[in-house]
Automatic annotation (TrEMBL):
An example Gene Ontology biological process: mitochondrial respiratory chain complex IV assembly
Lineage top rank: taxon: Eukaryota
Sequence similarity: Belongs to the PET100 family.
InterPro entries reported for this sequence: Pet100 (IPR018625)
Sequence ranges of Polar residues compositional bias: 66-76
Primary residence: membrane
Subcellular compartments: Membrane; Mitochondrion membrane
Record-given protein name: Uncharacterized protein
Length: 94
């Protein structure tokens, strides 16, 4: 029993006919092969286009990050209380 059951499972599921009958028809449904494996650029012009695309994405993320930081600092500056200190009342660091 302990020996024959694993052998029977391997024979049943390892059969190429079983694979072609049950696995291959649903394989394209579960695995999106065209999305999983993007093709690399094949020539110089495609490579330049990809580099330009990545450069644009990087600049867009950078500008978005700068905009969010500037708006957050504007909000922080507007919410900070302003103190009316005279020059004689300013705290000295030294």
């Amino acid at each position: 029993m302990y020996v024959f059951f694993p052998i029977l499972v391997m024979v049943h599921y390892g059969d190429p006919d079983w694979y072609h009958k049950y696995v291959l028809p649903d394989r394209s449904h579960f695995l999106k092969l065209d999305k999983m494996a993007p093709s690399p650029p094949r020539n110089r012009s495609e490579l330049q286009q990809e580099l330009e695309h990545f450069k644009n994405l990087r600049e867009e993320r950078k500008s978005r990050r700068i905009n969010t930081q500037s708006t957050s600092t504007d909000m922080e500056n507007s919410t900070k209380p302003e103190f009316d200190l005279k020059s004689s009342e300013t705290p000295r660091l030294v």
